[in-house]
C-alpha cells in the first residue's frame, strides 16, 4: 500500500530456535492484523510474537 500500511488476515507466523526471534517484526508502518497468531520461542536473547518499532 502506498501509505506504508499493510493488512494481515488469517496468518500464523512462528519463529523458533535462534538468538532473537520475531514472529512479526514491523518497522515504520501501520499494520491492521485480524485473526493472526504470532509466536516466538526458544531464543537465547529475546522472543517477540509481534514487535512494533
Structure overview:
The chain has strands at 7-16, 20-26, 32-41, 46-52. It is mainly beta and 53 residues long. The strands form two sheets. The protein has a two-stranded parallel sheet.
Helical content band: under 10%
Shape: flat
Work out the strand percent.
over 45%
- The helix tally amounts to 0
How far apart lie the N and C ends?
19 Å
Q: Could you give the count of β-strands?
A: 4
Describe this structure in a few short sentences.
The protein is mainly beta and about 55 residues long.
Relevant terms:
two-stranded parallel ribbon; flat; 53 residues; mainly beta; 64% strand; 4 strands
Topology at a glance:
Layout: E1 7-16, E2 20-26, E3 32-41, E4 46-52
Parallel strand pairs: 1-3, 2-4
Amino acid at each position: 500500500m502506498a501509505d506504508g500500511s499493510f493488512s494481515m488476515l488469517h496468518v500464523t507466523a512462528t519463529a523458533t530456535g535462534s538468538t532473537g526471534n520475531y514472529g512479526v517484526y514491523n518497522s515504520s508502518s501501520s499494520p491492521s492484523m485480524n485473526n493472526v497468531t504470532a509466536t516466538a520461542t526458544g531464543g537465547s536473547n529475546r522472543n517477540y510474537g509481534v514487535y512494533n518499532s
